[in-house]
Amino acid sequence: MMKLEGIATFVAVAEAGSISEAARRLRLSKSIVSERLAELERQIGAVLLHRTTRSLALTEDGAAFLERAARITREVEDAATDMAERRGLLVGPLRISAPVTFGRMHLGPALFPFLKAHPDIELFLDLDDRRVDVASDGYDAVIRHGPIADSRLITWRLASSQRVLIASPAYIDSYGTPDSIEALDQHKGIFYANRGVADWSFPTNGTATTVRGRIGLRVNNGDTMRDAAIAGIGIAMLPSFVAGEAIKAGQLQVIDIGVAAAAEHIYIAHPEGRTPSAKLRALADHLRKAFGSPAYWDC
């Protein structure tokens, strides 16, 4: 008879893409993970993974088995969680992906009281600015700033967020202050790479006007954008939760071009078709209260 731990280990390896990463997530040694995989393959009578010293890939049988194995693992986890929730407990793993800068500056401090209040939750927080595939990468939810275009996700709003144009006093002294969208187009920009060419977008007359500007830097991290702006590399458009402290300290100045960027929000999103757990709903409620309305970083 197949053991559930072997099935869960196979799913973890397939989602992580490597035995070492799966072992880290499961908090097991690599040798135990390998033993469980080998035992599962013996029980099934099929090779599920092509393994070399450099790579790992699903076989045809492995790909066919993974879909059901992942569903079985999730259902068992959900069943255990449901039983605990019936007793009024919030327990078990919770896997969340969030952006690096927001996670470091605001999410982490908001999470710590929640974890102290619910010590049986095992939170796996992955801070990464890349766009993850929530279901395929094994997350219960993602936290993101700005619009979420993936129609497979159900989004819950956590807090408001306003992006502002900023530059250092030294840059403004050297190159002047743009006072219109047209003038902004002549300045060097520090652009957020994950937003592509529409990073600087402004609502005008019922449509969106996009300014591409001259590229001084394109990068996928808010901390680096802020620091580049402080260094005088160019103008950046950043959320107030990233730039606020530097603005208060006088390291950056807000630039007014007569039109503001569209208001945005911080969201938490979970896969469509999967009933969100009580601990995920409790986390969302906690974060809404912690961030405030309006959010404390916009006050």
Q: What's the structural blueprint in terms of helices and strands?
A:
Elements: H1 4-16, H2 19-26, H3 30-44, E1 49-51, E2 56-58, H4 60-86, E3 92-98, H5 100-117, E4 121-127, E5 141-145, E6 153-161, E7 163-167, H6 169-175, H7 181-184, E8 188-192, E9 200-204, E10 207-211, E11 214-219, H8 222-230, E12 235-239, H9 240-248, E13 253-254, E14 264-271, H10 278-291
Parallel strand pairs: 3-4, 3-5, 8-11, 8-12
Antiparallel strand pairs: 1-2, 5-14, 6-14, 7-12, 7-13, 9-10
Description:
With 299 residues, the chain is α/β, with parallel strands linked by helices. 41% of the residues lie in helices and 25% in strands. Helix 1 packs across helix 2, helix 1 crosses helix 4 and helix 2 crosses helix 3. The relative contact order is 0.14. The model has no long low-confidence stretch (mean pLDDT 87).
